[in-house]
Amino acid sequence: MAIIDVHNIGKQYTLSGRRRVSALEQVNLRLTPGTILGLLGPNGAGKTTLIKILAGLLRPDSGGGTVLGYDLLHQHDRIRGLVSLVAPTADVGIDNNLTVRQNLAFWAPIFGLHGRLARSRIDGLLERLGLADKADSWPMHISAGQRQRLALARSLLAETPLLFLDEPTNKLDSEGVRSVRQMIADLNQQHKVTIMLTTHVMEEAEELCGEIALLREGRLVAHQPTAELMRSLRMTRPITATLKQRNGEVRAAVLPTLTLPAATTVQVSAASTSSLTVNVESLDIRTTIPALLAWVREQGCTLTTMQAEPVTLTDVFQALAEHRLQLPEGRE
Amino acid sequence: MTTFHPQRPDTEPMHKPGQHRQPLWRQFAALWAFGLREYRLWQSYRINQVLWMTNILVTTLLFFLLGQTIADQAASLLGPAYGTNYMSFVVIGVTVNIFIATNLSDPFFRIQRSYFTGTMDLFLLSPMSIYTPLLGLMARSILDDYPRLFFTFGFGMLLFGATFNFTYWPLALLFTVLFLAAGFGLGMLSASSFYLLDIKKGTEPIQFVIQELLATLLAGTYYPVTVLPRSLQWIACLIPHTYAYDALRRLLDPGAQPNVPVLPIQHVFPGLSPVLIDGIALTLFTVILVPLGVFAYGSGIERARRNGTLTRWQ
């Protein structure tokens, strides 16, 4: 059973002057248990609105479906009791007048934890998140990264099967980023927690997310496994190679004959009497480069230099923001 | 290293349709956590405790001085219904007013505050009932305000000559509970305006009109309602404060005569004891206002969920 299965979700907000703006339109999303989904999109794309709807904090104007098996429209209170959220502002929910441990002890009964179970879970989380030595410190005396980890610990107390992380490594130093990412990966891999993550750090989404959903202007424009998405978006990357002809003479006749897999354009030009420059626009450099190297060997050439970079989510995100994205066939 | 077990039975993850939310005892356990947090905060600031006690002492002294000033006129001012001790009269009025102000004004203030700090989002994303955080967040004011009653009575009696008749204390307690319940009903109505009327900042109109305006001027906190014009006395009968003050003074003020009518509505039913009329009125207020408050607050949450104003997080 899908942990999230929603259809045609739409939401409009009324602004001042009764002007209505569309925040989400016709969003369909299905997520299987144990997935980490990266929800990406420019500011204002509708990411937070979608999370609020899925968490039961916002009623959609249209559409419906289930989250954790509960009806999104009629059982939202049940959904709210079974999901956790880490908001981008770490200070939310942290009381500066209570120690780190007291903060967690306050939240434990709110999540239905009591007695020995609550204490052991608090101790465990403090240890896992590197806060054990700060357990009796005041939150204002710990770093921003540690406060973020405290916020994460609070959300993890409940051990809910579905976790929403809204920019979870925001404000963290590199060590904090590393430990939180590790924690997210552990939660997902070892404990099968389904996670929906929003981030502007594309490296983070690539590292953590098995699936990516792209939102643009309230529409879900793509939702696929991460690697597949980047291939299917048909974003080309340049490959530039310079070759040296071993025999000292360029065989001009071969130039127009070069075809490479996943390449949209191939241009071979003679840089000098003994060298060639190959410029390729590739949809998938992992396919194109081996074929290019095989061709180089076949031609009896020596590879002098080669530059190539894979498509990253940064490129996807940038293209999405600039409306340059060519969407996979069959999608909106 | 701890183990992590999402959907473990001991956390009662309610992921199967048909299962219920947290049982009532867990809602109380969550309320206890709110209370414990506030107590920890309260007891960690020693200077605050001293100032708190000083404030009560000064307030009681003020009543004493007022009582001394009008001691001679007190008997004629208060009339036979409330005895002759102005000190006792005003102590009841002011301390009970602090009580009810907590129940009436605090829900809106706490909801407003937790909304703007973003904490309400987290409370709503928990297995708690939507009403549990509303009650829990009031713990701070309850801890601060409720004990004032006992200290003010104590100081008044020990230091400043206030006297009370404790013969009917169980009945007085019942009236107090009814009054607090009615006040909480009004408080929930007031809190619901945060979501229903989208009053996010500034003064909340329900608590302002009832507590700041009608109760302060008309309910008889500092003077009996008989000093007011007859039309205003009738308006005073529209709020629960008037009945609570009347009943508590009749029951606790020494020399008070329980059967002498004071409020206009008590004159309408001469066959009924004024205290009984007060009791009926307070019961009616409670029976009407509490369900209305619960309904309004729930409706407010749902309305905010629909129009996107439930949470601060964006």
Overall description:
The complex is a heterodimer of chains A (332) and B (314). Chain A is an alpha/beta fold and 332 residues long. Chain A folds into two domains: 4-232, P-loop containing nucleotide triphosphate hydrolases (Rossmann fold, 3-Layer(aba) Sandwich), CATH 3.40.50; 237-308, Alpha-Beta Plaits. In chain A, 32% of the residues lie in helices and 29% in strands. Chain A is built from ten helices and 14 strands. Chain A is globular and about 80 Å long. The two termini of chain A are 26 Å apart. Chain B has one domain (23-307). The model of chain B is unreliable at 1-20 (pLDDT under 50). With 314 residues, chain B is mainly alpha-helical. Chain B is globular and about 65 Å long. Chains A and B meet through strand 1, helix 1, strand 5, helix 2 and strand 6 of A and helix 1, helix 5 and helix 13 of B.
Strand content of chain B: under 5%
**From the helix content, strand content and strand pairing of chain B, which structural class follows?**
mainly alpha
Q: Tell me, what's the shape of chain A? A: globular
Q: What is the number of E strands of chain A? A: 14
- Largest inter-chain contact set: A-B, 63 and 51 residues
The radius of gyration of chain B is 22 Å
Residue stretches of chain B low in confidence (pLDDT < 50, at least 5 long) are 1-20
Number of domains as seen in the coordinates of chain A: 2
